[in-house]
Amino acid sequence: MCKSLVTFYSLGQRAGYSKKAIDGYVTTLRKSGIAQRQSNQALLRAVQGNIDMTDAVKLGRIAQDAAVIGQTNSSDAYNTLIDAVVKIGRASCRERV
Hints:
Helices cover 81% and strands 0% of the residues. It is built from five helices and no strands.
């Protein structure tokens, strides 16, 4: 198992997700057209940004529509959505402090 997957599973488990659940989320994203590597990286960023994996998977479905509209691939659209949601969450936290 590569180092990034070990990190992914470790962070996911700290957030309360089992390895089986994590694999299920990745599989769901792959079925929606998000490439394996991008789905792993985006879900890792989602966990780091305190985004529920169920919501992160929903963003994968939204990314498919955004990809069509933006004339890009769904993996790139998904990464952009995850990054935006994480940044908005961080900005929101800063405003509360």
